[in-house]
Task: structure prediction
Amino acid sequence: MGQHIKYCSECANYTLKDKCPSCGGTTINPKPARFSPEDRYGKYRRLMKSQLKES
Ligand SMILES: [Zn+2]
Result:
């Protein structure tokens, strides 16, 4: 836990390292820090739940 997936700006390879293991390029965080994947999926889960209730 606590590791952030990063992605190579050179070859688009995903890695946890600061440097791409394939090409040695600089890796970047693909997502803005203010959004977490959990929040995004939680939003969709709540949306689906409310739709299920109505139908
Ligand atoms: Zn790379």
About this structure: The first helix runs from residue 37 to 54. The helical segments are 37-54. The chain has a mean pLDDT of 80. DSSP finds one helix and three strands in the chain.
